[in-house]
TrEMBL record:
<dbReference type="Pfam" id="PF08266">
    <property type="entry name" value="Cadherin_2"/>
</dbReference>
<feature type="transmembrane region" description="Helical">
    <location>
        <begin position="682"/>
        <end position="707"/>
    </location>
</feature>
<keyword id="KW-0325">Glycoprotein</keyword>
<keyword id="KW-0732">Signal</keyword>
<protein>
    <submittedName>
        <fullName>Protocadherin 2 gamma 28</fullName>
    </submittedName>
</protein>
<dbReference type="InterPro" id="IPR032455">
    <property type="entry name" value="Cadherin_C"/>
</dbReference>
<dbReference type="InterPro" id="IPR015919">
    <property type="entry name" value="Cadherin-like_sf"/>
</dbReference>
<feature type="transmembrane region" description="Helical">
    <location>
        <begin position="826"/>
        <end position="846"/>
    </location>
</feature>
<feature type="transmembrane region" description="Helical">
    <location>
        <begin position="800"/>
        <end position="820"/>
    </location>
</feature>
<keyword id="KW-0130">Cell adhesion</keyword>
<keyword id="KW-0677">Repeat</keyword>
<dbReference type="Pfam" id="PF16492">
    <property type="entry name" value="Cadherin_C_2"/>
</dbReference>
<feature type="domain" description="Cadherin">
    <location>
        <begin position="574"/>
        <end position="669"/>
    </location>
</feature>
<feature type="signal peptide">
    <location>
        <begin position="1"/>
        <end position="26"/>
    </location>
</feature>
<keyword id="KW-0106">Calcium</keyword>
<keyword id="KW-0812">Transmembrane</keyword>
<dbReference type="InterPro" id="IPR020894">
    <property type="entry name" value="Cadherin_CS"/>
</dbReference>
Length: 861
């Protein structure tokens, strides 16, 4: 009930009990009896440590013992400690008490360490045993009472109450027992003579020595003692010291003398000869030493080990020829020598670890032990100072290897960590343990281009798919984190997506042209290429690439002036009084190419008289060189060439007339020869346009005359029947209200003189007419009076004026239309192949034609 109140578990299989002694800060102590059967319960570790079975499984709980043999096992499924194999306390600990097993329970994720102590309680499973079955003594009859005789000590491997507690000697007529204790608490007995011996009465004595332990039930062991009484020798040997003390280093060599003991016997002769020996009560220490029975010299006979036993006690016995003995003891103290190097055991080791592990990340757990004592057993644990790792002590003899700096796989992907344990002995011993730690990659490096910006040059008119440039990025990571893909960023180039111009190979980073480039449309453009790795999340970087289009001489020359036409002749007039160097005209040409391909040079290819004119090589100016008063007309052919590698050229025909007046030019104008290779298609369209306009003109005239005749007949019919009709207000359709704000209150007569050339037409104003067309009354109501002769004359004049104006306007329209049509055809087929310049020229000429029509119409009005 008391144990249950304390919360300690107790079971009694085979009268054995398990006690949970303490549970504090991850340390549990149990007590179990020895010789428990395999599988017996030691304790519930889950309950005592405050854990659960899931934690044991997830943490991969296991037992770590400093010794290779495991007596206690861990049942992870139940969370209990059980006996793994039979435990013999005497074999495990011998006479050491208390006898305990020490081991650790290790949990991972996170790392936990729990110390478990299991004390093995002794049971009385051994009876006292003597090494010999019989002891023989030869005792002189002269032995005085009080003489002591050393008896064999019984051995009982048990400890505590279960070991030897007392001895008895039967019978006790002559001898009694005297118990003695050694420094370690063990007991031995001596047989003491109580009364003098009488050989004549009893020549031989039979005794029984019995040893009892304190167990329950009590066990015992016996040995026979035969005492033979001899005569004469009445002096016993005597040792010079009752206790001899000596100190030895543990590494003393075999055969080294320890000391020499001496015992004296006052008898003479054979009775005074003394022999030396170790008493059997010295136990197992007899194997490590030997004594010369004649000289008493004690020497080392085996390997001494301070870590096994720190001191030895030898019982000496000196015997004379008469059987008299004396006893003494030798106490040998061993001093520790640094003869053991530290031992490093790896409990747990994690490899690889990610490169982004934070400082103080646990890499390995170590157990380091040095079985020497004092300073010889103290040690220091170190790692390479040039590595980003450190050693920390977690508990006694347990250490953790941790990171103390940030790791970078790109600088070092693997570390060979040498752990060194050095003790403080002289000379010191050290132990090295090397761990190979691999660093796993983390995507912490973005791709890096060799340059932040690049420039590529590509010739215009390239083939689609041609390689423009190859960009390359490097990623310091490894594996998928270093696998780079290249992408073209979707930006606008001249208002269009960059993918319509350029594509990028995702694997190689090669930049390819999607289509053919035209230098005249785009001289350069910028794109951005993105390099992205395969990490998670992916990292990327950009590079700016400038694409420069290089010009080719792929555009023909365009002559802007003078305008060339196969259907008309353009002539430049040079006065006869012109001096040498007179600027006749200037040939103006353009080349939409750039650079050297757009440098133009002008040359005079042929002329009617080459000595009269020269052409400026760079500016195309045609100037007079000599003046020939007789020369009236000249025809010059000027060649314009660019400066490209495959040069292009154009020819210009310039007609020059030497005259002082325009009529003189006209007289010679028709004599110029014209080119006969007219475009048949242009002629066809011009004739078709002429026919269509003529047809529309005739239809328009007929329609106008029909409408006017119809209206004139209706007016006559209306006036003839005016006497019988009511007065109806009538407003002529061609005149506005002529009230207070009206216009055209009088009839005007015009004299019109027209020519085939509308530019030479004249319009003359004659006189106003004083006759009114209509009469108005004060009320504003307008009525038509009866037709009289004067009214008919005025109406005829008005109709004549209307028809004349219509014909004149139609003529102006037709002439302007044909002038505009001829100029457009000339520009389209001869002068301006460039679409932009052609559209501009057509617009300008159309504006001039509209302006001409407007001026002519104003003259008519």
């Amino acid at each position: 009930d008391f144990l249950s109140g304390l919360g300690l578990g107790c079971s009694f299989p085979l009268l054995l009990c398990v006690f949970v002694m303490t549970v504090a800060r991850g340390q549990v102590r149990y007590s179990i009896p020895g010789e428990m059967t395999k599988g017996s319960l030691v304790g519930n570790i889950v309950q005592d440590l405050g854990l659960d079975v899931k934690r044991l499984k997830s943490g991969r709980a296991r037992i770590f013992t400093e010794d290779s043999r495991e007596y206690i096992g861990l049942n992870v499924d139940k969370g209990t400690l059980v006996v793994k194999e039979r435990i013999d306390r005497e074999e495990l600990c011998a006479q050491v008490s208390p006898c305990s097993l020490h081991f650790q329970i290790i949990l991972e994720n996170p790392m936990e360490l729990h110390r478990i102590d299991v004390e093995i309680l002794d049971i009385n499973d051994h009876a006292p045993v003597f090494n010999r079955k019989e002891i023989n003594f030869q005792i002189s009859e002269l032995a005085v009472p009080g003489a002591r005789f050393s008896l064999d000590s019984a051995h009982d491997p048990d400890v505590g109450l279960n070991t030897i507690q007392r001895y008895t000697l039967m019978p006790t007529d002559y001898f009694s027992l005297k118990e003695q204790s050694r420094n370690d608490g063990t007991k031995y007995v001596e047989m003491v003579l109580q009364s003098p011996l009488d050989r004549e009465r009893e020549e031989e004595l039979k005794l029984i020595l019995t040893a009892f332990d304190g167990g329950s039930p009590q066990k015992s062991g016996t040995i026979k003692i035969d005492v033979t009484v001899i005569d004469v020798n009445d002096n016993t040997p005597v040792f010079s010291q009752s206790v001899y003390r000596v100190s030895l280093p543990e590494n003393v060599a075999i055969g080294t003398g320890v000391l020499t003991v001496r015992a004296t016997d006052k008898d003479k002769g054979a009775n005074g000869e003394v022999t030396y020996s170790f008493s059997q009560s010295s136990g197992k220490d007899l194997d490590l030493f030997r004594i010369d029975q004649n000289t008493g010299e004690i020497s080392v006979n085996g390997l001494l080990d301070y870590e096994r036993s720190k001191h030895y006690e030898l019982n000496l016995e000196a015997i004379d020829k008469g059987g008299l003995t004396d006893n003494s003891k030798v106490l040998i103290e061993l001093t520790d020598v640094n003869d053991n190097a530290p031992v490093i055991s790896i409990i747990s080791f994690s490899s690889p670890i990610p490169e982004d592990s934070t400082p103080d990340t646990v890499i390995a757990m170590l157990n380091i032990k040095d079985i020497d004592s004092g300073k010889n057993g103290q040690f220091k644990c170190l790692v390479n100072s040039d590595l980003p790792f450190g050693i920390k002590s977690s508990s006694s003899n347990f250490y953790t290897l941790v990171t103390d700096q940030n790791l970078d796989r790109e600088k070092m992907c693997e570390y060979n960590i040498t752990i060194t344990a050095i003790d403080e002995g002289s000379p010191s011993f050290s132990t090295n343990k090397t761990l190979s730690l691999k660093i796993s990659d983390v995507n912490d490096n973005a791709p890096v281009f060799q340059r932040q910006s690049s420039t590529a040059y590509v010739m215009e008119n390239n083939s689609p798919g041609v390689s423009v440039l190859s960009v390359k990025a490097h990623d310091k990571d490894s594996g998928n984190n270093a696998r780079i893909s290249y992408f073209l960023e979707d930006i606008l180039v001249n208002g269009v997506s960059a993918s319509t111009f350029i594509s990028v190979n995702a694997e190689s980073g090669e930049i390819l042209a999607v289509r053919s480039f035209d230098y005249e449309q785009a001289k350069e453009f910028n794109i951005r290429v993105k390099a992205q790795d395969g990490g998670n999340p992916p990292l990327s970087s950009n590079v700016r690439v400038k694409i420069m289009i290089q010009d080719q001489n792929d555009n023909a020359l365009q002559v802007l002036y003078p305008v060339q036409s196969g259907a008309s002749v353009v002539a430049e007039i040079v006065p006869r009084s012109a001096d040498v160097g007179y600027l006749v005209t200037k040939v103006v040409a353009v080349d939409v190419d750039s650079g050297q391909d757009a440098w133009l040079s002008y040359k005079l290819q042929k002329a009617t008289d080459r000595a009269l004119f020269e052409v400026g090589l760079q500016n195309g100016e045609i100037r007079t060189v000599l003046t020939d008063k007789d020369a009236v007309k000249q025809r010059l052919t000027v060649v314009v060439e660019d400066n490209g590698q495959s040069s292009r050229s154009a020819t210009v025909n310039v007609n020059v007339a030497v005259a002082d007046s325009f009529p003189e030019v006209l007289s010679e104008f028709t004599d110029f020869t014209h080119d006969k290779d007219y475009n048949d298609t242009l002629t066809f369209y011009l004739v078709l346009a002429l026919a269509v306009v003529s047809f529309l003109f005739i239809v328009t005239i007929i329609a106008i005359l029909s409408v006017k005749c119809y209206r004139w007949r209706r007016e006559r019919m209306f006036y003839k029947s005016g006497a019988n009709l009511p007065v109806i207000p009538y407003y002529p359709p061609l005149y506005a209200d002529v009230g207070a704000t009206g216009t055209l209150q009088h009839v005007y007569n015009y004299e019109v003189c027209g020519t085939t050339d509308s530019r030479k037409s004249d319009l003359k104003f004659l006189r106003p007419s004083s006759q009114s067309v209509l009469n108005f009354d004060l009320s504003g109501t307008r009525t038509v009076p009866k037709q009289n002769r004067n009214t008919e004359d005025v109406s005829a004049e008005v109709r004549f004026l209307y028809v004349t104006a219509t014909v004149l306007l139609t003529s102006i329209y037709t002439e302007s239309f044909f002038l505009f049509l001829s100029k457009v055809a000339f520009l389209h087929y001869v002068c301006l192949p460039c679409l932009t310049l052609q559209s501009t020229a057509v617009f300008v000429m159309f504006s001039e034609c509209v302006k001409l029509v407007f001026l002519k119409f104003t003259q008519v009005c």
